[in-house]
Design a protein that fits this description.
The chain is of the alpha+beta class. 34% of the residues lie in helices and 29% in strands. It has one domain: 2-Layer Sandwich (YaeB-like fold). It has four helices and five strands. Helix 1 (7-16) runs antiparallel to helix 2.
Length: 98
């Protein structure tokens, strides 16, 4: 089972963007109930996820209008939320350094 740091980040985001709430809750529940050991195992669940370097994965939220970037520690089964925002906000960041 995964451990996600921090759900409050997701909650704060969906309170500002209510249209994302159900999508983020579904992602959270799926991640918490999964045991992913590799990026490819994540891709088996989320085929549209983008695998980046340094164990970072980008998830499309709500039809790709929002993006969620997480960093995995597969050995410890930890997920660190590095960014959540609109696609436009995502385009302005360096996803490999956040």
């Amino acid at each position: 089972m995964e451990r996600i740091f921090a759900k409050s980040t997701l909650r704060e985001y969906w309170e500002k963007h209510p249209e994302t709430e159900q999508y983020l809750k579904t992602w959270y529940d799926t991640a918490m109930n999964s045991v992913w050991r590799t990026p490819n195992e994540v891709k088996q669940t989320y085929v549209n996820a983008s695998i980046l370097k340094d164990s970072r994965i980008v998830f499309n939220i709500k039809g790709n209008s929002h993006r969620l970037v997480v960093k995995f520690n597969f050995d410890k089964q930890w997920i660190f939320i590095r960014f959540i925002g609109t696609h436009l906000e995502y385009d302005k960041i360096d996803v490999n350094t956040i």
